[in-house]
Each structure stands twice: as structure tokens, then as C-alpha cells.
Specification:
alpha+beta; four-stranded antiparallel beta sheet; single chain; globular; 6 helices
Length: 216
């Protein structure tokens, strides 16, 4: 399955079964998280078989159930932490999807995580992980023209990249970003909103992974 197909098949899932994640899949995810950490300088931690983080009033309010595994995106306090968290967190989300697991980005509707956080670090966001009771549903999209400057003359790689962007999850499905193609350079900016820097990292990863072109 290529990366675009994985993006198409992945939807947010909040209800999980009690099926444990097998050691083989844990090893794949742990190794991939270690690669992401080495590349990014983040301190991503995957916590397994830990029911307390999602056994809170907030988690129930967020309609989470059965979640005992999660990815904690931790990193040094910095201006680019949130964007990096989105970029590398989404890499892990798609890796989890590729090996048959489900996920959901979780901003506030969880309890205390068991991640180890040093004094100069902070928890950027959590991603629930496990075997979903279902595969989730596709989100609604804004019109393409609202989030980029695509035209009939735009190169195919830009159109492909934007197809991938429209499949990306964003906080409360707000899609508050804009991609601009100038010559052969692509710029992406946040247009504000809740957790929009994390969203920007997520959509940049989707664009780059499918188009093969870097986003500024």
C-alpha cells in the first residue's frame, strides 16, 4: 500500500477494543519512534497497557473508551515544538495505520500521561493508539481553493500534494492553513486557530510525503 492509500484509509478512532498490541507491532513502532527522535531531536514515547490516561472525566467527555495505549509527543521547549510534534507525530500515525492499528490526535481530552518529561521539555500532544472498534469516518473538507492557490496550470506534483493535504487530520477539522505555490517553491502558513501549529506540521508531512517536494 503506498503512502497516499494509507492516508485515505486512516480516520480518527476514539473507541478501542481490549485486544493487546502484539510484540512484533510494538517493536516496529518503537524502532520507528526512535528514528523520528534521532532525526527531530524530539523525545517521543509510546506507552502501552496503561489505562489511567484515558480513564478521566475529560476522556469520557471526548468520547474515548477502551484506550490503554498512546503516543506522547514530548520535546524541548521551543518555538517550533508544536510544528515538529505534528510532523513527526503524523509519521507515526501513518506507520500505525500501515500495520493495522488505529489512532486519534488528542489535545485536551485525556488525563495525566505516564510519559517522562524533563525540566526543559513539555508534552506537546498525545495520540491514542490501538485496535479500533471501527475504522472511523472521513472528515468534511473545505473547497481546495480555500486552502491553496491551485489552478489548471499547476504542476501535477502540487495537485497530488494537495490531495494528500486534504486527507490530513486537523484540530476540530478546522483546516486553518494555506499552501502557496510560487514558481517551484511551496510555502505553507497557519491561518490561526486552536492547535494550528500542530496542524501545520501534520499537513506539511502529508504534502511532502506524497509530492516529494519540500514545504517552506
Amino acid at each position: 500500500m503506498d503512502i497516499l492509500d494509507i492516508m485515505k484509509s486512516r480516520h480518527s478512532v476514539r473507541q478501542y477494543t481490549d485486544k493487546k498490541i502484539e510484540d512484533e507491532k510494538r517493536n516496529i513502532l518503537n524502532a520507528f519512534a526512535a528514528e523520528c527522535n534521532a532525526e527531530s531531536g524530539l523525545n517521543i514515547q509510546i506507552i502501552y497497557d496503561e489505562p489511567t490516561c484515558f480513564n478521566s472525566m475529560m476522556a469520557h467527555y471526548g468520547k474515548f473508551s477502551g484506550c490503554t495505549n498512546y503516543i506522547a509527543i514530548v520535546g524541548k521547549k521551543s518555538k517550533d515544538l508544536q510544528e515538529k510534534a505534528g510532523y513527526y507525530g503524523e509519521k507515526l500515525v501513518l506507520k500505525a495505520q500501515e500495520i493495522g492499528l488505529n489512532t486519534c490526535w488528542v489535545a485536551l481530552t485525556h488525563g495525566k500521561s505516564m510519559a517522562k518529561i524533563e525540566n526543559d521539555e513539555k508534552l506537546a500532544i498525545i495520540i491514542s493508539l490501538g485496535y479500533g472498534e471501527n475504522q472511523g469516518a472521513a472528515h468534511k473538507n473545505k473547497p481546495l481553493s480555500a486552502v491553496c492557490n491551485i489552478t489548471d496550470e499547476s504542476p501535477e506534483w502540487f495537485a497530488k500534494g494537495m490531495e494528500a493535504v486534504m486527507l490530513a487530520p486537523t484540530a476540530m477539522n478546522q483546516q486553518k492553513f494555506k499552501f502557496v505555490l510560487k514558481g517551484d517553491q511551496v510555502e505553507a502558513v497557519s491561518t490561526g486557530g486552536f492547535y494550528s501549529k500542530i496542524d501545520l506540521g501534520i499537513v506539511k508531512y502529508h504534502f511532502e510525503a506524497v509530492s516529494g517536494h519540500k514545504v517552506n
